[in-house]
Amino acid sequence: MNRNTLLNLTKKYDSPLYVYDAGKIISQYNTITGAFSKVKNVKINYAAKSLSNINILKLLNQQKSGLDTVSIQEVKLGLLAGFTPKDIIYTPNGVSLKEIEDVAKLGVQINIDNLSILEQFGQKHPTIPVCIRINPHIMAGGNSNISVGHIDSKFGISIHQVPHIKRVVENTNMNINGIHMHTGSDILDIDTFIRASDILFDVAKQFDDIDFIDFGSGFKVPYKEGDISTDIDELGKQLSKRFNEFCKEYGKDLTLMFEPGKFLVSEAGYFLAKVNVVKQTTSTVFAGIDSGFNHLIRPMMYNSYHQIENISNPKGRPRYYSIVGYICETDTFGSNRRISEISEGDILCFKNAGAYCFSMASNYNSRFRPAEVLILDNKDYLIRKRETFEDILRNQEICI
Ligand SMILES: Cc1ncc(COP(=O)(O)O)c(C=O)c1O
Fold it and tell me: Is residue 131 among the annotated active site residues?
């Protein structure tokens, strides 16, 4: 996105600010659906958790996307955004049977990832078909915190427990209509998906009435110029062929599903923050901004990389900086980054700020969460107001 546009937006809406480019989200959606165009039934379910502003959900609904949700609140947001219940899949982890039943009452596709709840749900609601989240025991993903399909992970039902699933199905008469996996995020190697798909096909074969296979997500997106990313077109070619062969073998046109978050929204997002202070120490030059890990936690949480550019002085002499936040703990966005010379008051732009950035923001240190702006057809729309002091106090009851 054009630097001047971003700078003008900080003048109009102040900083810190999240900006999203609707055009990029739409083009990413078209890229992934295009890559699987050889499969008759394909459904891309946007992972709401990555960026859950209702306008983003509406935008994806307009593209005919489905929605991947993990909480009843995300389901309700999705329904409000215009998704029909059958467009929504609910993949919770560790939630109560009660919440799962409440979501099922809304008509949403349930995806269960443990045997205990499967059995309880099947006994009480044998007529509601459910999808099973399988743990294929594959180590995948860019960081141990986002690698969720390995043997020690809390997610999914182990492939070694498929006989248990079958026993539950027989005993309860419930119907399994989908098989799902999600092994992690930032997976570069398409072989990981291919290996896991073979495992899912093997599991699917063991159930008579499957309608869909959901391959989860985890596509790696580029974080800087020249960075490598998952080759979606190649994955589309290889997986489509295998999927179509499997459908023939199974004797039914199943639906192929994915549930990307990052792939759809990561690159569409920009986080803009103002430099409050430039601090030269004996070893480092820090640029301290009017934000912190309360607004963008990914670097501190799992060492993620966000390219940082000084859009106020793009042609300035490059120098080395550590970009830090104002939180009362170590709060580093990037160390020893080569950035064009920074002065106090400059606006820094953080790239890849669409996925897991605002949606993980908090009020830590009693700070306001930033505003969000959507650029749609060359116009900017404020899609979330900056919080105010009233928001900090909302729901607090004074008893002293
Ligand atoms: C079950 C599930 N599906 C989909 C996603 C989206 O993954 P990504 O943002 O890497 O596309 C996640 C991410 O945590 C997930 O846990």
Answer: no
